[in-house]
Amino acid sequence: MAQDRDMELIKEALGKYLTRKEELTSLLDSEAMKIEDQLSFQAMKIQDQLPFHTMKIQAQLSFDAMKIHDQL
Predict the structure, then answer these.
(1) What is the per-residue DSSP string for 42-54?
(2) How far apart are CA 5 and CA 58, in angstroms?
(3) In this predicted model, what pLDDT tens digit does every residue of 51-62 receive, in sequence order?
């Protein structure tokens, strides 16, 4: 009798554990997807800004080169 009751308690505890594990896994997956979306958006923003910054750097290098050339 006591052994049957213990088995039922173990089954109940295991069921609760598995349910909670599934809930937490789902929550983690959801948070991971949010983070992936944020990172993807930030990467696109950076990629969109690269041509502008590249042109800005090239212009500065050209200006510096002209200054050095004039000093020679």
Answers:
(1) HHHHHHHHHHHHH
(2) 78
(3) 999 999 999 999
Single out the residue of 52, 48, 72 nearest to residue 60, CA to CA. 52
Mean pLDDT computed over 1-16: 92
58: number of CA atoms within 13 Å, CB side? 6
Q: Which amino acid is at 57?
A: I
CA distances from 40 to 2, 20, 61 (A): 57, 30, 31
Q: Cα separation of 61 and 46, whole Å? A: 22
pTM listed for this prediction: 0.59
Q: How far apart are CA 64 and CA 72, in angstroms?
A: 13
Token pair recorded at residue 9: 């308690």
